[in-house]
Specification:
Blueprint lengths: L10 E3 L2 E6 L7 E7 L13 E8 L1 E6 L3 E5 L3 E4 L5 E5 L6 E8 L15 E5 L10 H19 L5 E6 L5 H10 L3 H18 L6 E3 L6 H15 L3 E10 L11 E4 L6 E3 L16 E5 L7 E10 L5 H10 L4 H13 L4 E2 L1 E3 L14 E3 L1 H13 L9 H8 L5 E7 L3 H14 L7 E5 L2 E3 L2 E2 L10 H8 L1 H10 L7 E3 L1 H29 L12 H21 L6 H26 L8 H20 L5 H10 L9 H4 L22 H5 L7
Length: 667
């Protein structure tokens, strides 16, 4: 026997005094915990499931979805990776409890995620050109994949983007092409929408900004509210101007980033993601003529981002975001958040209506926070007017997901959340972020014409292959490289050879042996191994398709793993199936049943990635419709299930030579 005091001595974890207790011979861990009067634990999550058993006091346990009040005798279970905090509601007495935690891992079948209506946004592209593969590998296909995944749950899912007309890059493009900015924006916005359509990307919400109509009034409504709360203020500051006195920001000014030293335009650095004041760029030059800019003092408006540091620190602990983005936020918070200039003297954009700056326009990235609300106001949700509907979507009742590239990270994780918090709204819970995609080892560049246009790649590869190619090379977490030689070889090997071969062998075997899919019979060791591996890949796909750990690249990789492994398994099982003698042996029945189950799962798993191929497989397998249940999709067919009488799916090859002709510099 051994006696211990559960509550002393203690160490401090997440602001909770905790005493660890060893439980030898078990997979369980136990701690005695005390939370002081009026205190709150730090927001956190971990890979273990955790059970809190309260022994004294009065408090609350908060997760993203709910808040539970607790007293002595209550117990609360938090699932692994579920963000949570505890707060002591008493200002006199401690809250004491036991924490029992364990690694659930695969020990339990995954619980069905709650069905939650979801709004997904992909950053509206700047209409200064059509989309190249670098753009498409980022937010746009990924958002469509997520919409299809979540749609399988029965939830209402809305996917939106728009056209970012008020960017200064529209002005520089229009000047270069000798047309007006409005005509430039209209032309390329239409081209972008056509490219999305070709890739099977269907938007439920499309934000079209204007500078004087209802959209502008909507933006000014929220600007006025923020001004009345004193989170917007005017200040005299130095501004760069060119020789003609034109104010310089964003696309009009260029220099070295004051934070990382890399080449940067005004207002924000694409390389490190941090904002700048334009006047703090090193070796600044006017973009148009290369001259050195002059300084001038002007009155401009600023948003008090610095005032929200404490709230934003809590927000980044609970919001779902990748490591690189979290580190950017952490770095900026540690350095001290800057206030952000939200007005620039320009003829292009939405003109300010606040006093002293009516000759200036709203900073376009500040405007976008309200653009997202504007798009949400078009959704079929409760609310008597646009403002009520927008605020309902960002109230916390709906999951909001923002998809974007790392160069836009600080806007989405610090600036926009601060604006929404100031307005009493709930910032997005999920951030789906991509890094840069290189082409043959160098960054995609429109100005250098080092790119492959999305619609040209689509014309050669087709929608399904194009989507899969870009998800297999999607730059998640790290920068990745795209080469046409590697991707054409990969697509042809996966689909024209291996998946085609799997389909043809199954079709021929079933035709030879009674015309229907059998139930599994006896199992050989290699069949058991294959089934175990298949279940692991299905589980990996399920995790990658979860909104908490969403990764379309890993989804695509799991599909590729299954096709590779199934092709080898199918070829090896031919030894059991060569004879047309009836009946099938018990082991041969298992071989056929496993292959049919694999194709059934592939029909399900390819739907978000390659919807056309998914439909072809579903029709050939004689499924009543698209599989929406991942458990059912990974199950055996009932014995006697017949395939469609139509010829089996035939997947085409991609011409490596045709794709090579798309490369820059090809003659």
């Amino acid at each position: 026997m051994k006696k211990i005091n559960m509550f002393s001595p203690a160490k401090r974890f997440y602001n909770v005094d905790s005493r660890t207790v060893d439980l030898p011979g078990t997979d369980l861990n136990l701690m005695g915990c005390t939370l002081g009067p009026g205190e709150e634990s730090q927001p956190h999550n971990h890979f273990e499931d955790e059970l809190f058993i309260f022994t004294a006091g009065h408090g609350v346990v908060k997760t993203v979805q709910e808040t539970l009040e607790v007293r002595a005798g209550d117990a609360v279970h938090c699932q692994r990776f579920e963000p949570h905090t505890l707060r002591n509601l008493s200002d006199q007495h401690p809250l004491t409890f036991h924490s029992l935690y364990w690694d659930a891992g695969r020990s339990n079948a995954p619980a069905a995620a709650p069905v939650v209506d979801t709004l997904i946004y992909a950053t509206p592209p700047t209409p200064n050109g059509d989309l190249h593969l670098g753009h498409l590998s980022g937010p746009y296909i990924a958002g469509d994949v997520l919409k299809r995944v979540l749609g399988n749950t029965g939830a209402r899912v809305f996917y939106g983007s728009g056209r970012d007309d008020n960017q200064t890059y529209v002005v520089t493009c229009a000047t270069k092409e000798g047309i007006g900015p409005g005509a430039c924006a209209d032309h390329y916005a239409q081209a972008i929408r056509e490219t999305w359509q070709g890739y099977g990307i269907d938007m439920d919400v499309f934000i079209t900004p204007d500078t004087q109509g209802e959209y502008a009034d909507f933006v000014h409504h929220y600007l006025q509210r923020l001004h009345e709360q004193d989170v917007i203020y005017a200040k005299d500051t130095p501004v760069f101007v060119d020789d003609a006195g034109n104010a310089l920001h964003e696309a009009f000014i260029h220099g070295g980033c004051p934070h990382c030293g890399e080449s940067s335009d005004g207002n924000a650095c694409e390389a490190c993601g941090q904002p700048n004041q334009c006047t703090d760029l090193t070796q600044p030059r006017v973009k148009r003529d290369g001259h050195q800019p002059r300084l001038k003092i002007e009155t401009r408006l600023f948003f008090r981002l610095s005032a929200f540091a404490d709230e934003l620190l809590k927000y980044i602990q609970t919001a779902n975001m990748p490591a690189h983005v979290y580190q950017l936020c952490h770095t900026m918070l540690r350095q001290g958040l800057p206030d952000i200039c939200i007005s620039h003297r320009s003829d292009w954009g939405i003109r300010h209506r606040l006093p002293s700056v009516q000759d200036q326009v709203i900073y376009v990235w500040f405007e976008m926070a309200f653009g997202y609300l504007w798009g949400a106001s078009d959704l079929p949700v409760d609310g008597s007017d646009r403002f009520a509907r927008a605020e309902q979507c960002y109230s916390g009742a709906m999951d909001v997901v923002h998809c974007y590239g790392f160069d836009n990270a600080y806007y989405h994780t610090l600036l926009f959340p601060a604006i929404y918090l100031a307005l009493g709204l709930t910032p997005p819970r999920h951030h789906i972020v991509n890094e840069l995609l290189d082409l043959d080892g160098s960054k995609f560049s429109t100005s250098r014409r080092h790119l492959i246009w999305g619609r040209e790649f689509l014309a050669e590869a087709g929608s399904d292959y194009a989507r899969m190619a870009l998800m297999l090379t999607r730059p998640e977490g790290v920068r990745t490289n795209f080469t046409v030689d590697e991707i054409s070889e990969q697509l042809n090997d996966l689909f024209a050879q291996k998946l085609n071969g799997l389909i043809q062998r199954l079709d021929q075997c079933i035709a030879r042996h009674g015309g229907s899919v059998p139930e599994p019979g006896a199992w050989l060791s290699d069949q058991k191994t294959y089934h175990e591996e298949l279940c692991q890949w299905m589980d990996g796909y399920r995790q990658a398709a979860s909104i908490q750990s969403f990764s379309p690249r890993r989804m695509a990789e799991q599909v590729a793993h299954v096709i590779h492994r199934a092709s080898r398994f199918s070829a090896a099982q031919e030894h059991l199936l060569k004879s047309s003698a009836q009946p099938l042996s018990n082991h041969a029945r298992t071989a056929l049943a496993l292959q049919a189950m694999t194709l059934r799962w592939l029909a399900y798993a390819t739907y978000p990635l390659m919807p056309g191929i998914s439909q072809q497989l579903s029709e050939w397998l004689n499924l009543p419709g698209l599989e929406r249940d991942d458990v059912l999709a990974g199950s055996f067919f009932a014995g006697g299930h017949t395939l469609a009488s139509r010829p089996p799916v035939k997947l085409h090859s991609v011409s490596a030579q045709a794709l090579a002709r798309l490369m820059p510099g090809h003659v």
